[in-house]
Design goal:
Layout: E1 3-4, E2 11-12, H1 18-23, E3 39-49, E4 55-65, E5 69-73, H2 80-88, E6 95-100, E7 103-104, H3 110-117, E8 120-123, H4 135-140, H5 150-153, H6 162-171, H7 187-200, E9 205-209, H8 217-234, E10 237-241, H9 245-251, E11 254-259, E12 262-268, H10 274-281
Parallel strand pairs: 5-10, 5-11, 8-9, 9-10
Antiparallel strand pairs: 1-2, 3-4, 3-6, 6-7, 11-12
Helix pairs in contact: 6-7, 7-8
The protein binds adenosine-5'-triphosphate and magnesium ion.
Length: 286
């Protein structure tokens, strides 16, 4: 039997095949509308000094528009993950501000801050799926930020989100695996499910920290094509950290280069020279 198990009961998925639902015009299964144009993420003078005194980011400024795919390059320890964590609120920046969809996160707290962060989704190197649960249940988890009821706090998945979750799975080309246990997926499939889970959040800004690090070249290409399409067709503002300059140049609109926590360049991908990229990885860069 094909079910989403939960603490307070199972949600049956047997009524209709996920494929049938997504193709039949059932509300919630339509393609997502493109986002309005404009700047979706603005970072101003961001500095992050950790408690041990290490300054991982210095006065970083960046704007990302709807529909843009920006790739961040830089050697190990140059501050890329620190930047991503500051944007999503896992790190509290020492100084500077982060504006998401026009709202300054530093000016907010409590429930208002939580709401303002909803348009932000983060994907990391590991898909971090719940292995024993179905693919669809994992994608539904992306919606939980919108449902803070007692039932969801105990693990029950919101029934009305199942069809939108199917749409997200369809968008990454894996609807046929909806009922499969997440632990059985290949690395490339798992990462695409992680993208679907992020899409279920209905983000405006999608951050991906080394999303292809553990994938073979073909699977890596597939995930990058997906991120490119989400920017171009759905209007998401995408920021992606990569250690593969070739993939970065191929897929990004803009490249940013970080070196010891400082933004070395922020330019259209076609204008970045191989020397500029090489300088990020030279011995004195780390
Ligand atoms: N919690 C922390 N406390 C102290 N220093 C930290 C902390 N987290 C990261 N750092 C340091 O900040 C610097 C930047 O780390 P970060 O993880 O942002 O680098 P990165 O560019 O993502 O590297 P990689 O390519 O290896 O993932 C490193 O020198 C790291 O040791
Ligand atoms: Mg990192």
């Amino acid at each position: 039997m094909n079910t989403l198990s939960s603490a307070s009961g199972d949600i049956s998925l047997d009524q209709a095949s996920p494929f049938a639902a997504a193709r039949s015009g059932i509300p919630g299964t339509e393609p997502r509308a493109g986002l309005a144009p404009g700047v979706k993420l603005t970072v101003r003078d961001l500095t992050m000094r950790y408690a041990n005194g290490h300054t991982a980011l210095r006065n970083l400024n960046l704007s990302v528009h709807a529909g843009e795919l920006v790739v961040a390059l830089g050697s190990n320890g140059s501050g890329k993950s620190t930047f991503m964590k500051c944007v999503v609120g896992l790190n509290r920046p020492t100084t500077g501000s982060v504006e998401v969809a026009g709202r300054d996160l530093a000016a907010l707290s409590g429930e208002a801050l939580r709401q303002a962060r909803l348009p932000l989704a983060l994907i990391s190197q590991n898909a971090n799926l719940v292995k024993r649960r179905s693919v669809l249940a994992n994608v539904c988890c992306g919606t939980l930020g919108r449902h803070r009821t007692l039932a969801t706090a105990f693990g029950r998945l919101p029934h009305e989100e199942i069809q939108p979750a199917q749409t997200c799975l369809d968008e990454v080309g894996l609807l046929h695996l909806a009922g499969q246990r997440a632990g059985t997926l290949s690395g490339g499939q798992a990462q695409r499910v992680a993208v679907a889970r992020a899409l279920a959040q209905r983000p405006h800004v999608l951050l991906a920290d080394e999303p292809v690090a553990s994938l073979d070249p073909e699977a890596a290409d597939e995930v990058m094509r997906l991120l490119r399409r989400l920017a171009t067709e759905d209007g998401l503002a995408v920021v992606c950290v990569l250690h593969q300059p070739e993939l970065a140049t191929r897929y990004a609109d803009r490249l940013i280069g970080l070196r010891r926590g400082v933004l070395e360049f922020d330019r259209p991908a076609s204008e970045v020279t191989s020397q500029q990229i090489a300088s990020l990885y030279s011995a004195e860069a780390s």
